[in-house]
Design a protein that fits this description.
Distance between the termini: 28 Å
Number of domains: 1
Radius of gyration: 17 Å
CATH topology: TIM Barrel
Number of strands: 14
Strand content: 15-25%
Shape: globular
Structural class: alpha/beta
Order of helices and strands: EHEEEHEHEEEHEHEHEHEEEHH
Strand order of the largest sheet: 1-2-5-6-9-10-11-12
Oligomer: single chain
Largest sheet: 8 strands, parallel, barrel
CATH class: Alpha Beta
């Protein structure tokens, strides 16, 4: 079984300081959270950029400040979001890909997102995939329901996506697939040979689905973007606390944790120069 890759989704686009006073917002805060998560066992950090007032931004300069601050502190795979915030244009959302980060998210369809609609027109999705290929960025295919996985598999068959793909199953969003083991098991059963996958359980589903992913040979995403609580009624002290729990569970199950360079090897990325 592969070593476990833990992704820390540090900030997200929608979470506020009112919901969690420890939410990292500035580049320095995000970089410190990334460092702490690497120390706890993470090998990927999934980042969203924020303006000083806490609002979401996809401006390349804001992402560059975050990436530079992270790399000044630690070696970790930086995965930028192209989801942005609901209502952003496709061109806004694509901006950070031009920075040539190691990875970026690629959502494989439109989904109801609570009270909003997260739009991903097929033409925009294809543009995102081509732009990532042009800039040498590894996509993580974001799957919110089974139809999105079926779309990804069609694209692979048509050659619109080449090589082994890495998926992130985001389960528990109101409007998407439920955060239940049965949903995860079905999605895993539909993957093409050679694929790798991560699960991002939303809210209370994070711990249960993350543990199941460890047992099944998948990988795990945790962090404030998806879940603010360590247990019911108790806010997590930090993103790193959530990472450390997954690392501890995986170690107890005799599955070692991947370092950033080991994660790069598993995902087909080029090791980052020292």
């Amino acid at each position: 079984m592969q070593k476990l890759i833990i992704t820390a989704a540090l900030t997200g686009a929608e979470v506020t300081r009112e919901q969690h006073p420890g939410l990292p917002i500035s580049p320095e805060e995000i970089a410190q959270a990334a460092f702490d998560c690497v120390q706890a066992g993470a090998s990927i950090v999934h980042v969203h950029a924020r303006n000083p007032d806490g609002s979401s931004t996809q401006e390349a300069a804001a992402y560059q400040a975050i990436i530079s601050a992270i790399h000044a502190r630690c070696d970790v795979i930086v995965q930028v979001s192209t989801g942005g915030a609901v209502g952003m244009t496709a061109q806004e959302r694509l901006a950070p890909v031009t920075l040539k980060p190691e990875m970026a998210t690629l959502s494989m369809g439109t989904v109801n997102f609570g009270g909003d609609v997260f739009m991903n027109h097929p033409a925009n999705m294809q543009e995102f995939a081509q732009t990532m290929q042009t800039h040498g960025v590894k996509p993580e295919l974001e799957i919110f329901d089974s139809g999105m996985l079926a779309t990804a598999n069609r694209w692979i068959d048509k050659g619109l996506l080449s090589g082994p793909q890495h998926f992130d199953f985001v389960l528990g969003i109101p409007g998407g697939m439920a955060g239940k083991p049965e949903a995860l098991m079905y999605l895993v059963s539909q993957l093409k040979s050679g694929s790798t996958w991560t699960v991002a359980g939303i809210g209370a589903a994070q711990l249960q689905l993350g543990t199941l992913a460890i047992v099944l040979g998948g990988h795990v995403r945790v962090g404030f973007e998806d879940n603010l609580f360590y247990r019911k009624g108790e806010l997590a002290s930090s993103n790193a606390q959530l990472v450390a729990r997954m690392a501890r569970i995986s170690t107890e199950l005799n599955r070692p944790i991947a370092t950033p360079n080991e994660a790069r090897a598993l995902l087909g990325l080029v090791p980052r120069a020292a």
